[in-house]
Write a structure and sequence with these properties.
Elements lengths: L11 H20 L7 H10 L11 E7 L2 E7 L9 E5 L9 H15 L3 E4 L11 H15 L7 E6 L1 H16 L6 E5 L10 H7 L7 H12 L22 E6 L5 H13 L4 E6 L14 H20 L8
Parallel strand pairs: 3-4, 3-5, 5-6, 6-7, 7-8
Antiparallel strand pairs: 1-2, 2-4
Helix pairs in contact: 3-9, 4-5
């Protein structure tokens, strides 16, 4: 199976989006303390308006409420549960983002991979600081196991803060000696909550979307009373020897690029397969803009090929859609 190549230069649409974000959203982010009320409510409501858009054609959504586990079961076009399932952990700095903001992206990923997806509705800070979201991610994975999904049929995915939760979930599984999923995918992961490199990187090349001070604010809010060096928060230092193969996609405009580079280096140093794709001219979590960006659609298609090829290599049937 041939996977699409990473473009060598950004499309006209990508350049336009980056400029729009730089001139419109970034100045607001520079000034707004997003974790303070009522600012947080405004930010949550603003991002949740994404959920008003029509879902991709042929997709279906079913709410799940089983004990402490909440989420959406999302089925894209031409999917088959026999191919496996996706567990998705959404981004939003641990403080915003929701099922509404991410259900469209997850539906597209479901269609690309040929398997249904469970989008976890985890608890958010500041109302529910660490370890609430990390515990909910683990509970969602255990729920899939409990409802009959073999670990080798599960792919875990997440973007931004959800990428941190993916890494934290793998670390928790390793620490507890629980079975690992087949693969993991991270989009623009927010991994180093100390944000040690962000300001310097942003001074060299200004991020169109993510202000370093807001990332720092979100990380500190999520950590709550815990030190940012706590073993479950410091995912870059986690033992990765038992991790499954990992794909990381990130844009080269991002102040968070260094997080992806350091994660890929540490995964490879543990002897685990890791693909790091740095996409020219792309903004934070650019696959989420797939209705507008050809690169977003190509990235999602690549994820589909990555998951299907691993399933084939591991003997799990994954029929191309």
């Amino acid at each position: 199976m041939t996977r699409p190549a990473v473009p060598t230069s950004p499309s006209v649409q990508s350049r336009a989006l980056a400029q729009l974000l730089m001139s419109g959203l970034r100045p607001i982010g520079d000034r707004l303390r997003i974790t303070a009320w009522p600012h947080l409510r405004v930010v949550r409501d603003m991002f949740d308006t994404v959920g008003l858009a029509p879902m991709p054609r042929g997709s279906r959504v079913r709410p799940v409420a089983d004990g402490d586990v909440r989420g959406l079961w999302i089925t894209g076009r031409n999917t088959d549960q026999a191919n496996g399932v996706v567990l998705y952990l959404h981004g939003g700095g641990f403080v915003f983002g929701s099922q509404r903001t991410h259900k469209h992206l997850v539906a597209a990923l479901s269609a690309a991979t040929g398997r249904p997806a469970f989008l976890v509705d985890y608890r958010r800070a500041p109302e529910h600081p660490f370890p609430a979201a990390a515990d909910d991610a683990l509970a969602g994975y255990r729920w899939l196991l409990r409802t009959g999904h073999a670990p080798e049929s599960i792919t875990v995915m997440g973007d931004s803060a959800g990428g941190h939760l993916v890494a934290g979930l793998l670390a928790d599984l390793s620490r507890r000696r629980l079975p690992m999923p087949a693969a993991a995918v991270m989009f623009s992961p927010f991994l180093d909550l100390t944000c040690a490199e962000l300001a310097d990187r942003d001074r060299v090349r200004r991020d169109p979307f993510v202000p370093p001070q807001r990332a720092m604010e979100c990380g500190r809010t999520y950590a709550g009373e815990y030190a940012l060096t706590h073993s479950r928060l410091n995912v870059l230092k986690a033992n990765k020897r038992r991790w499954p193969p990992v794909l990381i996609q990130v844009g080269d405009t991002e102040c968070l690029l260094g997080d992806s580079e350091r994660m890929a280096e540490s995964i490879r140093a543990a002897g685990v397969h890791c693909e790091l794709q740095v996409w020219p001219g792309q903004v934070h979590v650019f696959p989420a803009f797939y209705p507008l960006l050809p690169e977003g659609r190509t990235a999602i298609s690549y994820v589909g090929g990555f998951v299907r090829e691993l399933a084939a290599d591991q003997g799990v049937i994954a029929t191309a859609s």
